[in-house]
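Q: How would the structure tokens look for this protein?
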Amino acid sequence: MMLQSWCRRLWRGQAGFLGLVIGAVLLPLEWIYRGVVGLRNRAYDLGVLTSVASPIPVISVGNLAVGGTGKTPFAGWLVTRLAEMGRRPALVTRGYGSDEALLHRLWNPEAIVVVDAQRVRGVALAAERGADVAVLDDAFQHRSVQRDVDIVMVAAEHGVRRALLPRGRLRESVRSLERADAIVMTRKVADGEEAARISAQLPGPGVRAQVLFEAVEWVDLGGAPLSAPAEQRLLAVTSVADPTPFCEVVRTQTSGDTESLAFPDHHEFSKHDVDRIVRAANGRSVVTTEKDAVKLKAFSETLPTTFVLRLRLVWEVGLDPVMGLIGRALEAS
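A: Here is the predicted structure in token form.
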């Protein structure tokens, strides 16, 4: 966990002189990784590797960076919107952890949720279960399945650094955005004008949008509404790719100090982890994300008072162009 925290500082360019040294050491590895990813994408572009057509329309929601862009809540919002349009949507996810599938079932209990590492098989299974459109959560790099709309999420909090793994947080070059149909900038604590400025620097499609994930509600681990925590000191427990924006949101919503206890992304909490949380809280209340709440709920009797801060997706720019793009794709299919 300490290594993950240090890597996040390295990726943000905040690791000091040691970060510059390690970055130089990692540069050859980045070149190798960049070359392998580039060759793979070129193979798809030339038809050496082929994408498989699906029996139903496919909308991909993905990103370039390692986590923290809001693709999972955006995919959940999109499933809700498609259901409101009279469609029978399915959410197809790789399922890196139990949290993603649990969240989608919580947000859209009537929707079909398919967990399958092979996206082609997952979409086919969704169609067999009666879905008439599939939303792929985290699938921009999974080019084995054809998609009708490719939406890429970019977090304003990640800034404009363009280094690839392992020297940076990007899975592939920003030039890959040219194969996207829409780019959606997301922000939690970043300034709206800064998000727009970053979006303007990115290559890719003309369809651009911007959304804010704003805090709207405090609930307990069971989902019951709570008043905002009155304590001056809280412990923020997370197992997300980048806990910093969430902790900053908590600080803006409370008047006290918030300490962070971060676990690896998609971490499955154990009794040992919960004992560690109790010790770290030391009498303080705990605050956590919806993503972590679905896993911590099983330990509600052991944990101290735990608040869940729910975030809501608010469209700032581009709702109509994005939904128009999706609508036209669905009509054409």
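The chain has three domains: 2-46, 58-207+318-332, 215-312.

The mean pLDDT is 93.

Upvote if useful.
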